[in-house]
Structure formats: structure tokens, C-alpha cells
Amino acid sequence: MVSRVPQERRARGLYSLSLKGKFCENELGLAWLMRGRMGSDWVGQQQQPYTLLNRETASRRRWQIRNRSPRAGWPCFGSANPGSKVVKRPKKDPVREDRIHNEAIADANGPEEQVMGWHCYLDDKIRFPFQAKCITAEIVSPLRKGETVAVQRMAPEDACSADMLVLIRWQGRRMTVPLSQLVAVDPDDSTAEAIADWHYWVNQGYSF
User: Among residues 139, 137, 103, which one has the least CA distance to residue 123?
Assistant: First the structure.
């Protein structure tokens, strides 16, 4: 018990006036003095029960989070623009499916044999060299949409384990880019068909 208490500590409500007219440390005051020693902010203070007001507050916060607009630059895992068009896979082409399974990946057991089959199929049917136009930008390629390049040949088979690549000449350098980002300019029928078959495979979401 103390008789002289700083005005600011009395203002905080840490002391109570006793019957003898002296200020005594109450439970809140002891908890204030003990904080920091125990590593938490209000030691001894009872936790507030989960009241109806708390439930209403939590419900309101969930509603605000669910209905707030997405911030620019933040990933959106839902539909950011419900009215926008969604890119759909092309309809299955039975003739193309049959040709791919009978000529490109016939009797292929596992990813390695599928890679070998596709590489041989494209290398046999495409007439190299040819001029090609970039139809889409890819993160693994320096080409921009609309650029024209000279395609020289297929990339080595061991470089095509994840994607079919072709060797091009671009700005005085030779490099490999995905065949899926190129279309041939004025190709013959065999070249056009082979490239279209590979585009179909990729657009259907098939993989090795």
C-alpha cells in the first residue's frame, strides 16, 4: 500500500482508493507492473468471453474481406472479371487425334518414347528451313508477337524432353525456341499439318 501515487498512474486506473483514504494497487495495477517480466502485455488479466458483439464484428470483417476489390498487382485466385471471356480448349478433332496416336506417338510407352516419337514425326514432316512468324510471347523465348524468324531445323532430341524446340536464327544469333509459338509463313501442306498437330497437342493440355 502507498499513500503517494503519481497522477499519471492514478489516471491509468492502476490504483484504487481504500476505506482509509490511501491508494492501493488493484489487480489491474499489479498486472501492469508485472507486464514485461512475463513477456506478455496484461499478465493476470482475464480473457474476454466470446460475446455476441465479437461474433458480429468477426462476421462483418469476413464480409468486408470477401467483397473488397482486388488490389493492383496482387494475384487473384478467383474470377477477377466475372464477365470476361475465358480461353477454352479447342474441340477435339478425331482425325487429328487419330493421326497423332498412329504416327507421332504410336506404341510409345512412357514420356521418353513420346518425346522420341514427336521429335521424329516433326523432323520428318517439316521441310526445313522455312520462315515463321511468332504468334505468342513466351517467358523462355526472346521473340515478340509478330516477329519473323528463319527456322533452320529441330533442336537436338535431348533438348526437347519437356517441349518441342526448333533452332532459329535471330538478330545474328542461333538459339532454340518453342515450336508452339511459331507458325510457318507460306508452308507446304506437310509442314503446315505437322506444326498444326503439335499446336493441337499443346492447346489440348497434353504433356509427356
Answer: 103
Average pLDDT score over the chain: 75
**For residues 194 and 141, what is the distance between their CA atoms, to the nearest angstrom?**
21
| 173-178 and 130-134 strand pairing | unpaired
DSSP 137-150: --TT----TT-EEE
**Does residue 57 have a pLDDT over 70?**
no
Question: In terms of Cα–Cα distance, which of 33, 18, 27, 42 is closest to 1?
Answer: 18
What number is the average pLDDT over the span 46-50? 46
- CATH 1.10.287.370 at 94-203, yes or no: no
Residues of the chain with CATH 2.30.30.530: 94-203
Q: Is the pTM of this model over 0.85?
A: no
Amino acid at 68: R
Determine the pLDDT at residue 160.
Answer: 96
Alpha carbon of 171 to those of 60, 128, 164: distances in Å? 58, 19, 22
